[in-house]
Write a structure and sequence with these properties.
The complex is a heterotrimer.
Chain A: E1 2-16, E2 22-36, E3 40-45, H1 51-59, E4 66-75, E5 78-79, H2 85-91, E6 96-99, H3 103-106, H4 113-125, H5 129-142, H6 148-151, H7 161-173, E7 179-183, H8 191-208, E8 211-215, H9 219-225, E9 228-233, E10 236-242, H10 243-248, H11 253-260, E11 307-311, E12 314-317
Parallel strand pairs in A: 3-8, 3-9, 6-7, 7-8
Antiparallel strand pairs in A: 1-2, 1-4, 4-5, 9-10, 10-12, 11-12
Helix pairs in contact in A: 4-5, 5-7
Chain B: E1 6-18, E2 21-33, E3 38-42, H1 49-56, E4 64-69, E5 72-73, H2 79-85, E6 89-92, H3 96-99, H4 106-117, H5 122-135, H6 152-164, E7 170-174, H7 182-199, E8 202-207, H8 210-216, E9 219-224, E10 227-233, H9 234-239, H10 244-252, E11 302-305, E12 308-310
Parallel strand pairs in B: 3-8, 3-9, 6-7, 7-8
Antiparallel strand pairs in B: 1-2, 1-4, 4-5, 9-10, 10-12, 11-12
Chain C: H1 17-31, H2 33-55, H3 87-123, H4 125-140, H5 143-154, H6 158-184, H7 188-196, H8 200-236, H9 248-259, H10 265-292
Helix pairs in contact in C: 1-2, 2-3, 2-10, 3-4, 3-6, 3-8, 3-10, 4-6, 5-6, 6-8, 7-8, 8-9, 8-10, 9-10
The chains are: A alpha/beta, B alpha/beta, C mainly alpha.
Amino acid sequence: MTLLDVVNLHTHFISRDIDNQVRTAKALNGVSFSLASGRILGIVGETGAGKSLTAQSIIGLLRPPARIVGGSITFEGRELTTMPDAELNKIRGEEIAMVVQNPRTSLDPLTRVGDQLVRLHQVHRGGPKEASHKRAIEMMEAVGIPDPKSRARSWPHELSGGMAQRVLLAMALMNAPKLLIADEPTTGLDVTVQAQILDLLRDLVARFNMATMIITHDLGVVAHFCDEIAVMFGGCIVESGPVRDVFAAPAHPYTRKLVAATPERFRMGSAKSLSGQPPDLYNLPDGCVLQSRCAHATDLCKTPVPNIEVAASHFSLCHYAGKLDANPAGQVQA
Amino acid sequence: MIQPVLKIKGLTKRFPLGAGRVVNAVNDVDLTIFPGETLGMVGESGSGKSTLGRVILRLLEPSDGSIEFNGQDITHLPIGQVRPLRRDMQMVFQDPWSALNPRMRIRDLIAEPIKLHMKMSRSERDDRTEDLARRVNLGSAYLNRNPANLSGGQLQRACIARAIATDPKLIVLDEPTSSLDLSVRAGILELLAEIREETKAAMLFISHDLGTVRMISDRIAVLYLGEVVEQGNTEALFETPAHPYTQALLSAHLPADPSIKVSRHVLEGEVPSPIALPLGCKFHTRCPVAIDRCAREVPQVIQVSTGQHARCLRIPDGGNIIARIDQT
Amino acid sequence: MAKTTPTYPTQTQPFSARQRVSNRLIGLFRISPTAVIGLLIILFFGVLALFSPWIMPHDPVSSYTDRVLQAPSAEHWFGTDGNGMDVFSRVIYGAKYGFGIAIPAVLLSLIIGVPVGLIAGYRGGLLDEVLMRFFDGLRVFPSIILALAVVAATGQSLLNVVLVLGVLDSPVFARVVRAEVLALRSSNFVESAVAAGNPTWRILFVHLLPNAIQGAMAQTAVRAAWAVRISATLAFLGVGVQAPTPEWGAMIRQGAEFMVSGQWWVALYPGLALICMVFGLNLFGDGLQDLMDPRRRAAK
């Protein structure tokens, strides 16, 4: 059952510069995807591709000059883009929960950890404080925090990175969310701790049947923890589909390059064609966002790009999707 | 007998915190790097790898031990005499955005080491700067810009150009690709490999990412709580890691290929604080194969195979290998 | 209920020079109205100072002995003073002194304060303590008293006034620069500069200075306002400037005697001019912080 449906989302940054001219950065350009309960979606992309912005747009945390200027986001059939803030507040923190990067800075430094969990529960569910406290301890146990009763009395600055991330996860789970958005949940954590957190996440998803969106730039995380993948560039989803299919047979030039640059496949000497300038969101070209740095680009790429289904549920935003190997204009990467 | 570019013995760095408490960042480290060689240094937080890199370059003062650079003992050299040596030992930092003075032009930043250490006229310097920019694949249009106008990858290229400007014998790289996007990393690594080929400079490549380190290093040293727990040739280390921590580290690394099976040793608990180091073997608190002896005895360095050394009490009895648990 | 994607009007012709200037002014105004207003006031007085020979209807130091203490009239817009000199022309000419004293004084403060702030902030330790205590001591002194004492000892001249003000105000700049250096000295680019082999003086002046000077720059306008005010006060007390120099402070002093007898114009107009100039400088200095801070958000 589809829980979240994002259709043709456009988010722009609209501001005036020092010469009083209106400048628009088109940060999200027609992002569409859907997510069902119990499924884990991994969103990957470069800095500035729009991954975090997508999450913020969904949960309604955009601040001026960023604004949603088009498209729709439906959660359980309810439209989120036009929902008044009061209603959105009820959904945020309860049905949709978000865990962000830099766990230590996300916690209120002046309140004990356990109290923050209780506070979150009270705001949404009310009821007697003891019940909230009990649930807080339950959740801390669920995320693998040792000795939760005494840990609940810790201050945020006393926690290590991994522990703080677990606390944030516990917070996210307090109100049994249906959708969990995790923005770079393991970046900055040690590899050995990362392994613990990811195992934990997968366990929780299975137990609570949550839909989960993981935003990351680590392809390894996506390869082993996600069911579906969406690759973003320049505010568009350039390729999406089941993880196995996309890794085995990437259908978009950008995905191919990304996969070819990973340590498992990289061969010295092939990096020359890999990177280029990040797209100028203030001056996006007509047609495909990747024109200027794609080896397969032709004049056709200056026209609006279709989203082609190259295999079951596997989409590629490219004029030549599915036909890349036959394209004489480009060099083909393995 | 080729002389090593860098030879450190028993290097230790302690940071006093007052009230008798001390952060033991680096503990008794021995390392040698030869010309043209890249030594990868891997460790997680608290391993002391960044501190070690800085102590080697005398950006931090060593508490104990010795540093020999090109045959010269520089451990206690006065800073005034260390400065001219910097011509031959340079550093590339992790975060290219903050490693370059935001108010200077790229051109001046790259040329600075030349200005400081080499006697060249302004036009010779300019020529060399442009050469360097070409060398690192940085368009000359960017030379006259400020760091704010360049992307991460371009900035790091500029940093590399700055580091090789005086043809140094040793380059220390502290997580040079960790802040960069995936698509950019490979290009930077390739550039470094090329430079190493051409200049035969020795490199110390510090990183927390095993995948990256594997791509560029000839030998690897694994650090845990300021100590080298294992050292060896790259492939040997990856094929047959001896130390339990190395094994855990390797298994925790997620390959970007869903078809590769991952068997994980998920370590219990967190890294102990460097203020209160565990007694005996520093890793024993999290080690899945630790025995009673490990809490009392500090393991000495044992040779595991040619060129591979590790510190573990269980190597002689074969108990250092952690059984792999296969995961679907 | 999806919204339609908006299209944005594109600029078809390039802007003319006049449009560019007005665009820039409006843009700056949106960011900081105070800065723009302050700047306009300062520019106004700057024009007065520069173009006074062409604006003044009368010679500021020639006295019309037949028209002493005349009320404002068509001939003398601000009336005449006790020596029969035209107040209006004198007020215009006096703008020169405002700038003539403030600018060199602030420059001197910068020249003394900035290097001290750099060294104290970077080195820290005993040197820092000693320098800062000394500067604190300087600030504790009431400036007027100190200025009076110095000028009494060294002699009445404009130069001495400038020197005193310059020295007295340097602690402010030293403090501000020191604060920035404290924050910057552990940053990566400084470490990179050390690693490259820079000697300390280069670290201070080539690397730290351009980055640490922001706060000091923002202070200049405010301290200039202080300098103008203090120099006027000193002149009012009879220090530094001799009659019949048309300096506003001196003019106020002269006019003070006549306030009681009803000739208000002699003191009022120079007083107003002084207030306006100081106000403009303060506004600009205040708004400058906003302008330099790259956080401009204005959603349409």
